[in-house]
Amino acid sequence: MKKTFKLVAGCDAQEVAELAIVLPILLSMIFGVFSFARAYNIYSTITHAAEEGARVASAPVCATCTALACGNFPCNTTVTQTVEDIITASHLDAAQISAVVPAGLSDCPAPAPAHACTSPTLPSGAGQISVCRDVILNTNLNPALQACGTIVSFRYGYQFIPVPLISFNSINIPARAQAVVEF
Question: pTM for this one?
Fold first, then answer.
């Protein structure tokens, strides 16, 4: 106790003023680094969830089965369950998820059916994702090289930690993944 009192009593006013100037800047930088690191972690997680959802949506359930409820591919409930499982495993709030329907999609050539974009609700009822099936994934290539597949997309609303001197409120982090349909 005596040593601490002597240390504080030995400080000049200049040192206290320097601490008062430097400490808020240092704390703002620490909170900023933490906020952006968390935003990157969320981006990585939701991108992984979208990739897994697209992979599940484009893989046939059974190659020899007929008359399944959703055809030969998994239903949207299976896709949304896959996405929600990854989101909840990372302790993210599924209520922050909202669907984003991609624009400018083209139908796959015949005999594939016309593309269909749906926005199913997650099994918990918290948010929605967009699942677009039977779309051309690489429209900029030669038509002979184009591939048909599925696109899963959504966005996650992230609220930054309130940091002095920085005016970020919230952002919508997008996630979009596509997978070629396997036949």
Answer: 0.79
